[in-house]
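User: Could you check the structure of this?
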Amino acid sequence: MSYHVVTKHLQNLSFDSNVDGHSILMDASVAGGGDDRGASPKKLLLSALAGCTGIDVVSLLKKMRVPFSDFEIVTNAELTEEHPRVFSNIELIYRIKVEEKHRDKVEKAVNLSEEKYCGVSAMLKKNSPIEFRIEFL
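Assistant: Sure, the predicted structure tokens are below.
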């Protein structure tokens, strides 16, 4: 399998990336010399991580027939001071509302995503430690 994405320069530091017919606008902040017309590429990478593991967790919970609600993933990261500025560490906080009797299954789903299924996590772990925790609502 291979992926093909076209990213086109618009103006100043803004770019439009076409991903399977979906347009994603990226730009630098005003302080960074851009016009702040779109998301930061590094923050999009964190969103991709949360989306990847989130899809895994939801798919696994559906297979386990675990009802849940109010699921969100908060992603925090620190950048190194030297260039290239990369993530020195990443933290994922899984927040989910689920009956107490199903909490062990949520933990299993998160662990499976982190250790086996999430390709974005596997790629990022090669450079940045990723820590995660679950907050039950």
